[in-house]
Design a protein that fits this description.
6 helices, 6 strands, globular
Length: about 210
């Protein structure tokens, strides 16, 4: 697979930040989900994701909060495997496949862009797609033909460093790369699921939310 080249002049791929929900939620029966209506809306949102791009992406780059390394690390396998980084879900959710091809050439281009900006970056040839990537993308792009990579966060989670990473990677938007930030604004699943079971009229006040 060749590295993405420049797309039509004037076209620039967007950068999208999307919610990927909890675990493998789109592939579970509604009866198992605590709030099927909420997840139905999220499914509609993800199914419309391809419409955001002005043209079909040459490649997809996912940055998810579920992968941290000492320094920025990009997956470089030509055919990434699956990484089921969740537990306690129905057996069938560990058989999900989304066999999108990788793009080692794009991985090298990412490393070069980051290193030119003075940002260290490594390649990981064994890393597979984790749920922050394959869950939303299997809904948005059920036919996995677009080359897809993941880029880790830095373990120090330094905001300035990550802004600089984004700035260094910005030229990829003009080469047809659709960049996606995958995550949620919270990750206290125990509190979330408990609140949904109790319902919106429970009168519950979450102390952390008030403090925020």
């Amino acid at each position: 697979m060749r590295a993405p080249s420049k797309v039509e002049p004037g076209l620039k791929m967007p950068v999208v930040y999307l919610p990927h929900g909890g675990g493998p939620w789109p592939f579970m029966q509604d009866s198992v989900l605590a709030n099927a209506r909420m997840y139905a809306k999220m499914t509609e949102y993800l199914e419309a994701l391809p419409n955001v791009a002005p043209t079909e992406p040459e490649a997809i780059l996912v940055i998810s909060a579920h992968w941290e390394e000492r320094e920025a690390t990009v997956m470089s396998a030509p055919n990434p495997t699956m990484l089921y980084d969740y537990s306690g879900f129905p057996p069938e959710t560990y058989e999900i496949v989304w066999p999108a091809p990788g793009c080692p050439e794009l991985a090298l281009a990412i490393i070069e862009l980051l290193e030119d900006a003075g940002i260290g970056c490594s390649a990981d040839g064994k890393r597979g797609f984790h749920h922050g990537a394959f869950v939303p993308l299997k809904v948005a792009y059920p036919e996995p033909f677009i080359p897809t990579l993941q880029l880790s966060l830095r373990g120090d989670l330094d905001p300035r460093a990550h802004v600089e990473m984004g700035q260094a990677l910005a030229p990829l938007r003009e080469r047809g790369v659709f960049m996606i930030g995958s995550g949620m604004s919270y990750h206290n699943m125990q509190q979330l699921m408990g609140s949904m079971r109790r319902g919106p009229n429970s009168g519950e006040v979450i102390e952390n939310s008030v403090a925020f």
